[in-house]
Amino acid sequence: MGVIKSIEELEKIREQAKDLINLRKDNENKTRIVVGMGTCGISAGARQVLLAILDEIKKRNLTDVIVTETGCIGLCKFEPLIDVIKPGQPKVTYVNLDPDKARQIVAKHIVNNQIIEEWVIPNI
Amino acid sequence: MEIYRAHVLVCKGTGCTASGSEPVIEAFQKEIEKRGLGKEVKVVQTGCLGLCELGPNVLIYPEGSYYCRVKPEDIPEIVEEHLIKGRIVERLLYKEHATEEKMRALTDINFYKHQKRIALRNCGIINPEVIEEYIANDGYMALAKVLTKMTPQEVIDEVTKSGLRGRGGGGFPTGKKWQFAKDAPGDVKYVVCNADEGDPGAFMDRSILEGDPHSVLEAMAIAGYAIGAQEGYIYVRAEYPIAVKRLEIAINQARERGLLGKNILGTGFNFDIFLRLGSGAFVCGEETALLASIEGRRGEPRPRPPFPALQGLWGKPTLINNVETYANIPPIILNGADWFASIGTERSKGTKVFAIGGKINNTGLVEIPMGTTLREVIFEIGGGIPNGKKFKAVQTGGPSGGCIPASLLDMPIEYDTLTQAGSMMGSGGMIVMDEDNCMVDIAKFFLTFTQDESCGKCPPCRIGTKRMLEILERITNGEGKEGDIELLENLAKSIKDSALCGLGQTAPNPVLSTIRYFRDEYEAHIKEKRCPAGACKALIKYEVDPQKCKGCGLCVKVCPVGAISGERRQPHVIDKEKCIKCNSCFDRCPFGAIVKK
Positive or negative, the Cα torsion across B250, B251, B252, B256? Predict the structure, then answer.
């Protein structure tokens, strides 16, 4: 936290500090993960899914992903479920998740753009 | 570095603090801890968002949901519903006045859609007490660029090319002033920031100082490099305790990080900034009076030339600029003069911050491109006049400005157009008036202020404004005489021509502009002893409407001077000689039979 001795050091601090205010800007262009947190979701374990996703994002230092919650969308038996919305791509809904599956989704879909078909909501 | 999934921003500017944002912040912190969300949700105090009347203001990201008039009792619901379940709390959302539609995100609101926030770029986004947040948003990068990649002359050329003009009211080309200061001979020079903001109702500078103090510090350092100064002073009015505190914190943090002081960023450039507090004199916003005050002398202006750029603080070349002018400098350096010049009009570049008040729905702070029309500001951004009243005039430029009537609503807001219309840009105060405002009374209000604040050094101001005020008081008291208007105009011209400083030179403006556009109101006061707007108490006549009066006698009982008489169940009568216009009968009558003319 000492004296900034050069412009390069200032730029480094800026890069690191961007996370401080990142969430308040340019959110329209970010990948959005929406976690169902209605009563059905919470009782099915959505909170643990949420925490797993947040942890995975933090571990991988993903700065252009935002995580929000939503209420019950009516498919209570498929909870915990999440929506993955990438800019310019159709929304993908994953159902019947647990913390482990959630982490894999972050790794495969968010980072590597590979949709995990077997966990996507079936055509009902 | 911790990453949070949600940020809760609570405004801690003066307005919201006054309406109770501190308990709101505490309630959030407590509830978030209680629900175990401490690692996921961050509570941040921020600067002024602009809609001060609706505070305490809360913004939640990433959704950008805008909640107003939030109370500590609302917090458990917001945490449970929004932060845990993702359900926006509808009842607390901002509602668009015209359509009653609840707006979910800040960027959807009419008030914000039309704004272009440059000077206010960080207000409401960063925590002003954390220098890292300022740095995260490109803070001090302009200073770094200037110190490592530009010569002092190149800096001044960039500012000149941008077309930036003084935002404190004078509108003097900023680059030109910087050039004068640079060219002035001498080894010791000073950079001063005028943060006295004395105009009643103006709080543009206050919001910048409270919400983004580092932008001023950075700009002053850039100015110091450009003109060859190593010391800067910020003269801030003592009536802004939160601004003073934020500035102190900012200066200390900047010094700790070596962004102020010796050998900044290892370039060998030295610059430090010191605070000086004002003591409540409007005239100390005038540059030479301000400098006298910093020197410890009584705040009185002096004749110019010599201008401060040549001979200022302690006789040395001094660059003195307004807070908002400085706040525009870092973006101009980073984004380029051409970018700034592409906003606004031919002779008024960039944006201007306005404090809108008076008879308007959305009271608060806005930053808009120059050239926006008054109509757009008042009716689209400001949300129009409350209670269905008719717009009458808008006073721009505070006590130095004038009023603009409805016929000029489509005028673009620029330095020159406003001056031509008999007003001025001033520091950016905009007071809106409706049909219930008396223009003579308004002129009297502003002149009362400037007369009281006159330092007394020069007779035109000291004596002239007093005589003008006496005439206005006679007129509003029903004692106006034929020839009073011409006398006012005569006095005004003399004072404008001969007063020593801007206070005296502009004090007659409200009177002149109200005479220019509302002469009929003056004439009604003088010739008919009548106030058309029904505002001047002395000219209001109270009468009983015999059609509505039921003779119940309730008014007789409340009249303190026994001016009302009448038989039971017969229309009563008010003796106008005895009536002291206390309004008691008007308030008491259950049938609306008391009429004010």
Answer: positive
Q: Do B87 and A2 touch (CB under 8 A)?
A: no
Q: Domain limits at B522?
A: 439-527
**What DSSP designation does B103 have?**
P
Closest CB to B258 among A5, A18, A54: A5
Q: Are the Cβ atoms of A20 and B133 closer than 8 angstroms?
A: yes
Query: Residues B175, B311: one domain?
Result: yes
Q: In this predicted model, what pLDDT tens digit does every residue of A26-49 receive, in sequence order?
A: 888 899 999 998 888 889 999 999
Residues 71-110 of A with CB under 8 A from B: 71
Show Cβ contacts of residue B524 under 8 Å, excluding neighbours closer than 6 positions. B530, B531, B532
Amino acid type, B71: K
Say if CB B1 and CB A62 are below 8 A apart: no
For residue B121, is it within any domain?
Answer: no
- For residues B94 and B138, membership in a common domain is answered with no
Of A27, A30, A69, Cβ closest to residue B86: A69
Residue A3 in this model has a pLDDT that exceeds 80: yes
Same domain, B227 and B321: yes
Q: Which of A21, A23, A58 sits opposite B126 (nearest CB)?
A: A21
Q: Which CATH number covers residue B257?
A: 3.40.50.11540
Contact A71 B86 (CB under 8 A): yes
Chain A residue with Cα closest to B85: A37
Sorted by sequence, the CB contacts under 8 Å of residue B155 that are 6+ apart come out as B146, B178, B222, B225, B226, B333
Helices and strands counted in chain A (H then E): 4, 4
Domain-terminating residue out of B340, B359, B390: B340
**Chain B residues with CB-CB distance to A16 below 8 A:** 1
Same domain, B15 and B62: yes
B141 chain-A contacts, CB cut-off 8 A? 10-11, 14
Least confident range from A18-32, B228-242, B362-376: namely: A18-32
Burial B461-491 (b: 16+ CB within 10 A, else e): bbebbeebbebbeebbebebeeebbeebeeb
Is B159 a domain residue? yes
Contact B64, B105 (CB under 8 A): yes
Per residue in B101-120, pLDDT (tens digit) is 777 777 778 888 889 999 99
Q: Hey, what are B547's tokens?
A: 């059609």
**Together in a domain, B448 and B521:** yes
Q: pLDDT at residue B276 above 90?
A: yes
Q: Is B161 on the interface with A (CB under 8 A)?
A: no
B532, part of any domain: no
Specify the pTM: 0.89
Q: CB distance A3–B256 less than 8 Å?
A: yes
> Using the beta-carbon criterion (under 8 Å), do A21 and B84 form an inter-chain contact?
no
| Number of domains comprising chain B | 5
- B11 backbone dihedrals φ, ψ, rounded to 5°: -70, 130
Cross-chain residue pair A66–B148, CB shorter than 8 Å = no
**Lowest-pLDDT range, A57-66, B235-244, B448-457, B507-516?**
A57-66
What CATH superfamily classification does A26-119 receive?
Glutaredoxin (3.40.30.10)
Q: What is the ipTM of this complex?
A: 0.84
CA A9: distance to chain centroid?
31
Is residue B225 in some structural domain? yes
Residues of B in contact with A65 (CB under 8 A): none
